[in-house]
Each structure stands twice: as structure tokens, then as C-alpha cells.
Amino acid sequence: MKIALVDSGLGLLAAAAAVRRQRPDAALLLSGDPEGMPWGPRDPQDITARALACARAAARHRPDALIVACNTASVHALDTIRADLEPGIPVIGTVPAIKPAAAAGAPFAIWATPATTGSPYQRRLIAEFAAGATVTEVPCHGLADAVERADARAVDAAVAAAAELTPPHTTALVLGCTHYELVTTPIRERLAPLGPLPLYGSADAVAAQALRRIGAAPAPDAPATGSLLVLAGGREASLPAAALRYPQTRSLTGGANQVGASPDRASAIRSI
Predict the structure, then answer these.
(1) pLDDT category, 272, cuts 50, 70, 90?
(2) Does the active-site annotation cover 177?
(3) Which residues pair with 111 in a beta bridge?
(4) Which of 5, 76, 115, 226 is most buried, most CB within 10 Å of its CB?
(5) What is the DSSP letter of 64?
(6) Tell me: the pLDDT tens digits for 109-136?
(7) Rounded Cα–Cα distance for residues 13 and 178 (Å)
(8) HEC assignment per residue over 227-269
(9) How many CA atoms lie within 13 A of 166 on its CB side?
(10) What is the Cα–Cα distance from 35 to 92, expressed in whole angstroms?
(11) For residues 166 and 136, is the Cβ–Cβ distance under 8 A?
(12) Are 133 and 102 within 8 A, CB to CB?
């Protein structure tokens, strides 16, 4: 099977790694937009056009399913991409994990980009899945950009600023941007005074939904034969150097027939 993932940059790594964990034999296709990155500050029409272009580039390789591995693109472009590609290719969007975080009924926080924080989209999700719960929306200024650059100092500074805005009564944290799932270690370290907070990301749920949509079951013990193809602006490319700073990339670079990631490079990956 072949699963495609779309994002402007590195935010798709977490979902790609989740697919790889659940199906090590799946071929992965990562379709990004480095020239238009980041999508967050752009207007909805531009975001939609760019996300659709990435999706169409991936579709030319005939994937069995396509994951829009970006919260911003899922908000603005998901319906357009589905109208363009379905029913031929199932399209799966990314939604912040507000519902499972709210299930305990305890106070929780949502870290998201400034554009998403307080948006009608996020407020609708809170009203639908966390009505009556104490929810704090925290804007994470500069965090996604710092993750994209794999700039550890900038990540630490952005995480520290977001932690200052997170109330002491917080009992769980929703990661409302796919980029944030790449830096859970510094987030946990900074929030350690609040206790061992569970972090709710979307990657595993999105990967599972993609498999369900194509009638496939998880098979984590399958042979690790899955290949990797990277597209940048629709053209075959290598994984950007910053990607090699994240542990999620290890699982993407161990298979066969890959573009842009040799075993020697994979062995040198260092966690941010």
C-alpha cells in the first residue's frame, strides 16, 4: 500500500512516523511546499491553492490514501482537496485531539499557532467536544517556525513562553499543530512543574483512520520494507537537513528504495 502525506514542511513527519509504526511495509510519499512555507500566515485562498497543488502532485503517484497532515490546511483546504480527489483517493484531515483530552473532565490547555488560537474553527471544536470543561487556549508564537528550522534554542524559548501562559491547574495538553509533536521532550521538560501531563497529539489517530479508509489493519510486525519518496513543490527531492534532527525520521529512513535518506545519514540523526 502507498500512503501520501501533505504539509508545507516538517509537520507531516509525526503522522508519517505513525503510519510507519502501524504498517512498516507501507510506501510513504511526503509532499511539501518549501517555497510557500509556512502556510499559517497566508490567506485561506492561498493556503487552499498550495495544499491542493501538493495533493495533486502526490495523487499523480497513485497513493491508496492521502493525509492532510496539517491543522491549518485541514481547516481551509480539506473540502477542496476531497472534492478534487475523492472518491478515487480517500483524503484524511487532521483535527486537534480535543475530544480525548476532554473525556476526563479536568482542565486542559490547547497549544496552537496564533492564527488557530481563538479561531472560530477551534472554538467550534471546543464547544462540540469540551462543553463545560475548563479549556485554556495558548498561542505558541514562533514555535512551528523554530521546529521547521530545527533550532533548539528557538524551540526552547517558544516553549518557555507558551508554558508561562499555561495555567498551573492544567492537567493535560492538546498539541494543536502537527509540528509540536516533533518536540514533545522539551515541552514535557518545561511543563514538569505541573506534573506528568498527558500530551494529546493527532498523529496516531490520523494514521489509524487512513488505514481504516482503505480497509487495511495495523500490522506493526510486518516486514520493514516500506519505501519513502519525497516531493518538494511537486518534484522529487531529499528530506531537508532539518528533518534529520528529529527521531521520527529514523523510522522513515530504514526501508528500501528511498529518496534522500541513506542508511549512513539515518544513523547520524540526532534528536532535538
Answers:
(1) very low
(2) yes
(3) 138, 175
(4) 5
(5) S
(6) 999 988 888 888 899 999 999 998 999 9
(7) 8
(8) CEEEEECCEEECCCHHHHHCHHHHHHCCCCCCCCCCHHHHHCC
(9) 28
(10) 24
(11) yes
(12) yes
Q: Which of 57, 66, 68, 70 is catalytic?
A: 70
Give the other-Cβ count within 10 Å of 26's Cβ. 25
Do residues 28 and 19 touch, judged by C-beta distance below 8 A?
yes
Catalytic residue flag (residue 70)? yes
Q: Identify whether the C-beta of residue 223 lies closer than 8 Å to the C-beta of residue 27.
A: no
d(CA 58, CA 78): 15
Reduced to 3 states (helix: H, G, I; strand: E, B; else coil), residue 177 is coil
Sheet order of strands, 199-200 included: 135-139, 108-112, 173-175, 199-200
Neighbours of 241 (CB within 10 A): 9
Catalytic residue among 81, 92, 177, 187: 177
Which residues, in sequence order, are CB contacts of 20 under 8 Å at separation 6+? 26, 28, 226, 251, 252
Q: Do 202 and 165 touch, CB atoms closer than 8 A?
A: no
128 burial (CB, 10 Å; 0-12 / 13-18 / 19+) is exposed
Q: What is the residue type of 196?
A: P
Indicate the SS3 state at residue 115: coil
CB of 9 closer than 8 Å to CB of 57: no
Model confidence over 10-64: pLDDT tens digits?
A: 999 999 999 999 999 999 999 999 988 888 778 889 999 999 999 999 999 999 9
Contact 31, 237 (CB under 8 A): no
Question: In degrees rounded to 5, what are phi and psi of residue 200?
Answer: -105, 110
- pLDDT tens per residue, range 232-270: 999 999 999 999 999 999 888 754 334 333 333 332 222
Q: Hey, which residues does 6 pair with through a beta bridge? A: 31, 68
